[in-house]
Amino acid sequence: MAVTETIVPAGGLVLVTGVNGFIASHIANLLLKQGYAVRGSIRSLERGAWVQEAFAERHPKGTFSTIQVADVNAEAAWGKAIAGVDGIVHVAGDMSFGADPNQVITPMVNGVRNLLRTAAKEKSVKRFVFTSSNRAALNPIPGKELTVHRNLWNDSAIAGAWRPPPYEADRIWDVYAALKAQVEQEVWRFSKEENPHFVVNTILPDFVVGPIFHPKQPGSTGKWVMDFWRDPGHYEPLKNFIPQWFVDVEDTAFLHIASLTQEDVKGERLWGFADTFNFNSWVGVFRKVDPKRKWPEDDPEQGHDLTKIDTSREVELLKRFGQDGWTSFFESVKRNVLDTPAAWPA
């Protein structure tokens, strides 16, 4: 593929924010595997010391460095981190699951605006990719048929998040969904109204499954899978999770890389929706992977996500990276439980 001024060139430098996180670490890993240089931001160099060691071990000939950005929302936070980069993948976010939108949403909206304005001053930046979420578009509602379109926003969650106080725990998921929606909306507003010189794309992954990258990572959604796998009695988190779509963590990473490197991917929202699942899906995989252990019975009351979504664009992009479409639920869960480091959690 010919190098143009609008894509990250082969060997180019990419800033991956929150590189110690579940999704971000896999993005960085695949970028390094493909020969790109990676600069990863972390909030604390001390707590993230394992990051440098892990990538040096996996990619001894790769170019990887870390930079501390203690407050991702500060106005002057990103100048040094962005200097000289060809592309930015902004994964870092607020995972506090707080109930007060003023404390969760407002700082992150201001923060992404600061990041974009800093990027607009750096002429080397060609691509900006934002990690959003399925919740930015919709809340999963089992049993309800819904056709998802590219311009769908989770207006009900935004309204729920900003309803008058008191700010109690019953609005946590609305605040989280509204956070993802309103930060992504600010990314698109900036792209449209301030017309930066770089291309903007966003990725909306659903429930992300796959191996935890390092023993010192909390593991995000991969943790819930591991907890159930290691203790069949610890099934409540996944049993109570609303049936919805999933996506493999490496498929998610490839969609980010496509957004950085593919000439025709411009101004797109890409869906990380591979297949649907419910509690019985997890149990079905575990029985096949380890039939000797006693697993819970299927729950006949489990619902199903009936959302319809066209992901032919995403499948086509995955095939450019040698993938045969989406990774299956079985394969992704199998890798989650068998390829996560035995020492996790450290």
TrEMBL record:
Pfam families assigned to the protein according to its UniProt record, in alphabetical order: Epimerase
UniProt keyword Cytoplasm present: no
Keyword set, alphabetical order: Oxidoreductase
Transmembrane feature ranges: none
Keyword flag Transmembrane: no
Domain NAD-dependent epimerase/dehydratase: 14-137
GO MF terms held by the record: oxidoreductase activity, acting on the CH-OH group of donors, NAD or NADP as acceptor
Family label: Belongs to the NAD(P)-dependent epimerase/dehydratase family. Dihydroflavonol-4-reductase subfamily.
Protein name in the entry: NAD(P)-binding protein
